[in-house]
Protein 1
Amino acid sequence: MIPVPRFTVALGTVPTHPITQRYDLPVSPFVTGCITGAMVLLVALAWPGVRRPRTSPLPVVESWRNGLSPLVVIPRLLAVALLVVAIIAGRVGADDDLENIAPALVVGLAWPVLVLASVLLGPVWRWTDPWDSAARVLTRSHPGDGPGSVWPAAALALPWFWYLSAYQYPLAPRSVGLMLAVYSLVTVAACLAVGRVRWLSTCEPLGIVLAWIALLPRGRLPDWEPPRGAEALLGVVAGGTLFAAVRRSELWAAPNSAERATLLATLGLLAFCAVGALAIWCLAIVAGSRSTRPTVAQAVVPAVAGIVVAVAMDRNRLTTSLQLLPGLLGDPFGLGWDLLGRPGAGLNPAPLGASGLIAVQLAVATAGYLAGAIVLARSVRRGERAPVAVGLSLLCGASAIALATH
């Protein structure tokens, strides 16, 4: 169970609320949320100009599309090897998350680093997707199989975020190995059953979202035509990720100490995912015109990327994994090989400090929302931006409060 402080109110004192207290920032989480939300609203409404739209929708560079060049095959083989090592290490290696490569590689690094790399470099997942690589060897897809509704991916994302956000021991090596093995088997088996392209383009949430995020560095999000269910998938990813931050904050202190903490966390996760999906869907409805509605999903994509990276930094998980990885690569199973140095030697558990960590998290999350505001401004005329701009502003404020209440 996650240890949390209990608050007591002495006689004669005024009771406080988590969002109005000061933690490691000069102002309260509520004020922080107001400031960041106002910044996003200002940029969304004031950013000049509308870019000339394309005459046809922009194709997304997904991992499953077309053939693979020899240059792509090499990093894919490395990704498959790392996947196999992580599964084996998680299941039979050292049962210590600081001496086993699986937690640091899969939970600590893979998810946020892939998102960050997609933001900075583009379609990184096409160069690394291990499940598509395995499925290509075992099955062939018909050329006519293509992307459709991604509603199934929104549903299949729930177990993934339950493990990351609601499960009590996401860094336990045995749990990481089991989760990774089950997800890999289900994904490859489904590719065999229904077709590689069909499954990966409609049901595999990780690859779908990474392909969308990869449009950001090339400035091509305004030309992207979101598929059916895009708002639901983005809402589940945003809600599920933010719940991880909330569960580790003072806002969830009482449920964490309850007898059925995991059940309450599961219900909380479902509620957050439902609210996230509903909020983005309502923004799309309020957007009004048929030409404006796709910009909601376009604007939310960079916001989701910022949320994922910011929450991954919580409790110094990302920085700790980066420091552990070199040594763990030399001894992935915790057998004492010491080929690249001992894992954890010279580890700095809090390199940014408490205040610095929260400040960087808020900066990353806010940068994602600001990028979303610019995407909105490049696609919609000033007079039509207000509903979506206000929605982005409120989502940014809520995200800042969740991150700051630690």
Protein 2
Amino acid sequence: MTITVHPVILCGGSGTRLWPLSRKSYPKQFVPLVGETTLLQDCAERMLGPSEAPYAKPLVLTNEAFRFIVPEQLAEVGIDPGPILIEPEGRNTAPAILAAALYLASRNPDAIMLVAPSDHVIPDKTAFHKAVAEGARAVSERGDLVTFGITPTRPETGYGYLKLSHAPDSSERAVPLDCFVEKPDADTAQSMLEDGSYLWNSGIFLFAVRDIVAAFQQHAGSLIAPVQKAVAEAKTDLGFLRLDPAAWAESADISIDYAVMEKAENLSVVPFSAGWSDVGSWTAVQELSDVNEDGVATNGDVTAIECRNVLIRSESPTQEVVAMGLENVIAVAMPDAVLVASMDKAQDVKQAVTTLKEKGAKQAETLPVDHRPWGWFESLVVGDRFQVKRIHVHPGAALSLQSHHHRSEHWIVVKGTAKVSIDDKEQLVSENQSVYIPLGATHRMENPGKVPMVLIEVQTGAYLGEDDIIRYEDIYSRE
């Protein structure tokens, strides 16, 4: 019997260990950390499955902040996703996976779902699809809940482990799981590496919808009612499915491992040794990068002189980073923040983010580029009573019909053509032309063309915050 795999992509997370490139407003899954495509795009292409096997369109779970970024990035690589479920707030992996299972169960109770985070790297897609096929046999023949274990290559203290019933060999497809093991200390990690029966916990799962729902009913019954209600009372919004906020808030904030996997008995593990990374630190990025004979990995406009074992990145096309005589150092330069850290502190970068949040630094969570459903804008200069922005509007996109209490705006088009409405007047503004929006005027900007439209906006006024926006109409249903 042919088995159709239903991919489920978990696309939340903040990726604080990869600050300053990954931040809460635009985390690592949306960034091209390795190669030209983003981690989300790589994941989605991997979840399309091999040409000879039926894989359904991927179901994606994400949050309000990313709901337009997800389809935009998938469209860039030619992927038409299936349903996109919007989580009202982050409640960890157990409620998210249960919501996906219940959604699929209402349409195909016999479905097999493949659950994966959106921010992992698995270079060998063929090997991954083969491992999924091995897992599917354990699911269909024995009703197992399957997870994928990564063959460890070092005594890693940053990962959880899977203890198998015995050390796997190349002939075995899926091995019974003995238990989950928390992140170990260095000595324990070394002994587990030598033992051979421990694998890294990848956080990737495969199970039949009816089996995982039954497991939730048995081991985490308190989650069923609120998540079921959140799915049943979900509202369709511009092609997205918004889970009911009130019901969702009643669900526990708990991982799938704690809620179900550590309690279930019908678990097996498919060993995977063809390369994997959760890209959980800057040292992981270095390992995935092209390095020279001295272990130097660079990205962007970087000059490294007499350096050894370093990762140096410039994330701005106007910023040249020069490193001299460095060893075992991470340096990541953004337009608004720079990280310089010892390699052995890579796992502690999230502590720096916590410290920045405590001191009220906006760089802790937000990037200079602010992504919106219609495109993005970037603050170029901020001064007393004025601000200069670069605004990029996608073809066919439009900003909301709005006004401001405290600022006026001057728009200069530098690329494309803008369709501008000011009160009851409408006009086209072409390249090298400008238009003035007085304080309090009701206005809207659209891109009627087939190419991106770029303009420079000069704001002047007593208050220039983004919350000084009164929306009257918005095609993206923002409040």
